[in-house]
Amino acid sequence: MTVTATIGYVLAGLIAAAIIFIGARFLVAPRVAAAGYGVLADVDQQGTRAYLSVKGIRDIASGLLVIVVMIAGTTHLLGWIILAATIIPLGDAVIVLRSGGAKSIAYGVHGATAAVMLVTTALLLLS
Known about the structure:
It comes from Mycolicibacterium hodleri. Keywords: Membrane, Transmembrane, Transmembrane helix. InterPro entries: DUF4267. This is DUF4267 domain-containing protein. The protein has 6 helices and no strands. The protein is mainly alpha-helical. It has one domain. The longest helix is centred in the middle third of the chain and has 27 residues. The N and C termini lie close together (8 Å).
């Protein structure tokens, strides 16, 4: 494996671990997780808690998917999956902005995540 691919794998692993952590946080501390996402939620409402739980489960599954592809050792497939998944933080940024959330979170958290994912994609696809 090239140095470029190794760096890409490390970044992909960090992305996977981070999204699994974020997903778990939506399950165990939904109020904190929603605030960190950038949109405050009334977690005292059962329906809202359900949606936050759905987000948590899907985040965990997304992280696990990246780990499975990493284990398979298919560098280019991993790059394409990371590229496709970049739509998630981009969409999150738009949701935060359209919901009146903090621009600092939209750009600083979700935008930065998308940027790291694009760098990771480049490292994996160009290796």
